[in-house]
Amino acid sequence: MTRSYALLTAALFCPPLALLAQCGAGEVEVTIEVTTDDYGYETYWQLVPGGNPCGTGTIFAGGNLTMSCSAGGYQLQNMTGYANSATIVEGPWCLNLGSTYDIYSVDDWGDSQATFEVFVDGVSIATFNAPGATNVFTFAAQPPQSRDMGVTDLTTALFGTIGEPITIRGTITSFGSDPVSNFDLKYSIDGGAPVSQTITGLNMVASDTYDFEHSTTWIPGATGQYTLSVWADNINGGADMNTVNDAAGSDHIINYGIPNIIDDILALPAPVIFNIANSNEDLLVPRDLAFHPDLSRNELWVLNKDTEASGSSTVKFTNVGEDGQTYLMQEDPNNWHFMSLSTGIAFSDNGNFATSPGVFDANHNGGQPFTGISLWSSDPAIYAQNIFGPLGSHLDMLHVTPNAQGIAHESWNRFWAVDGYNQDVVMHDFKGDHGPGNDYHGNAVIRRYSSMTITRDPNDHIVSHCVLDKNTNWLYVVDHGAQRVLRLDITTGTAAGAPTFGPFETYVEYTQMSGETWDEVATTGLVQPAGIAIIGNRLLVSDHSNGDIVVYDVADPNTPEIGRIVTNSPGIMGIEIGPDGAIWAVNATTHELLKIAHTVSIGMVEAERASFEAYPVPANEVVRFKGLEAGPADRFMVYDAVGQVVLDQDVNIVQRNGLVVSGLAHGHYTARSMRDPSRSARFTVAR
Q: Measuring CA to CA, how many Å separate 596 from each of 497, 514, 547, 581?
């Protein structure tokens, strides 16, 4: 491997040990690659024996040598030391084989830090990076095992619904000295039978990463909390020689799906409309709304426009529309920049959410259009808390979409936004965020799609929202100015060089796309289209001029309008389908939150979904069920942890004789009556 070496003044401070050409018995040669962010002068670091405080027994000090061990977060340093966005190789040092050593990393600004990659005898053994003012990273000076892989990141949806496939995603890293050509990628649910896929055609050397999507999706069979484990095995046909770092795990919450009752609402002479909240609950020009992805929480977030000078705010409703409803208005300490004149909000499948600011210049100084969508945590200990410094609690921000008009979620931290200034659509993948209140944006992937032209409201008030149908990969976009609805196939398009707009920062990727597939969905009957939502084959668009919600059939290639839900509430912007199937909407003119239903009460009554009970737990031969009701020709299905049907029997037989499970492997299972799939029971087979 050819590496570039930079001659820096810091090298003059390297002790004589670094000048050795060969290491003696009991020693290994260690080098460290330091990769700086956009502000190289902020980096200072030391290499010391493991357990020593910074400055004690220092083996090497590098970077901005005007700094000290206690300078993290001072924001006072001279611009000297390392270059910006550079990779510098420091060393080599002959260190004691098997001993531990600490890297003290100090950042002047106190936010994103440099990345340190440690090589022993020329092979990468570890890569370290973390945000903050000061970090300590520990490594052992010893060569890696020949075969060693580990899952270093999981980006699998943390929230899902019964029967909907979940793709197992993440990143795996090779730590071994042998190049990896193939391995088995495995996962299990709640410790059940592993699901395996063989990955071939690779050439991974130490420290190389592989972003994976397992070929077999997980289809949850019941509600509840599950634990996912993912690991690598059978590396180059042999066992992993370091099992300590193999697996990564995450907890996942599965809820009931949202019922599609749109046709029921359409069938009424007039919809049932509830006024859930208004300005008394701190709604001030609300433009959009979104439910938290854990639908069982019934937690709704409303996004207020407010003013450019004040920045936008959110109002979180808990138990929304039910007895005991509460609300909480929150403003981030730096919403003036990161959430100004916001137009849209979208939750991700990991609990984060993103907002699209409608402002042209987030710095409000008449300069360049330095603004774009922001990423936030919904964790109450993080969001809007004034403990993270001058940049507030935002997790990330990408500055390529001025006057953004709407936002839709795809997966993990990947979102699509309508760029009102450039009149196109932009995909933003934040990847790993920089942490609350930090400012490093360089690991993002951004792709711009400009075949469609979207015209925003010239008064910058009425939104042009978008929504992604994750079943078909069609992104539906409101084109407010042209009074129409468009759609884009997000799986199409090819790279066509760099965009002409920006960038104002450095990203991993910023690409102009071309040749994408798009078409018009609706071109008539809309006066001031604004909000948009989708469920099943029903696409809903709100008309701000009259409050109508127009319904289209997207299963028909001609996407005909099949009806209108007349609310008599001009001013409606954002709309959303709630956990109960009702339509929820915000009115920016009357400052109201509305619920539009087909009956006075459409909430899911828990008793109606009460599940039957399995016993004994765990089971070995036969499982019996309390509360199981039989019916003619009713089937009884049993699913394993990944959603595959393993047993199919008549309910009457199961009710009479129990369920014979002696042929099932050890693991967790879900039983369901097909007459009412919402009723289920989980049981465990022990061997």
A: 46, 40, 12, 10
| Whole-angstrom distance, CA of residue 358 vs CA of residue 372 | 9
Level-2 CATH architecture, domain 9-140: Sandwich (2.60)
Please give the model's pTM, rounded to 2 decimal places: 0.82
For residue range 305-333, what is the model confidence (pLDDT) as tens digits? 999 989 999 999 999 999 899 999 999 99
First to last CA, the chain: 50
Return d(Cα 115, Cα 662) in angstroms, integer: 53
Please, where in the chain does CATH 2.60.60 lie? 9-140
Cα separation, 312 vs 308, in Å, equals 8
Which residue has tokens 């409303």?
302
Q: Distance of CA 410 to CAs 153, 176, 470, 491, Å?
A: 18, 34, 7, 12
CATH code for residues 609-685: 2.60.40
**What φ, ψ does residue 207 adopt, rounded to 5°?**
85, -5
Cite the DSSP H helix spans in 79-180: none
Domain 262-597 has CATH 2.60.120.260: no
Q: Give residue-wise pLDDT tens across range 155-184.
A: 999 999 998 999 999 999 999 999 999 999
All CATH 2.60.40.10 domain ranges of the chain, comma separated, are: 149-255
Calpha distance 266→671 (Å, rounded):
35
Is the pLDDT reported for residue 610 higher than 70? no
Cα separation, 371 vs 391, whole angstroms: 14
Question: 560: how many CB neighbours lie within 10 A of its CB?
Answer: 12
473 vs 643, more confident: 473
pLDDT of 678 reads 58
CA 567/CA 154 separation, integer angstroms: 43
DSSP character for 666?
S
Q: Under CATH, which architecture does the 149-255 domain have?
A: Sandwich (2.60)
46-63 b/e (C-beta count within 10 Å ≥ 16 → b): bbbeeeeebeeebbbbbb
Handedness of CA 247, 251, 256, 261 (dihedral sign): negative
- CA-angle at 564, arms to 559 and 568, nearest 5°: 150
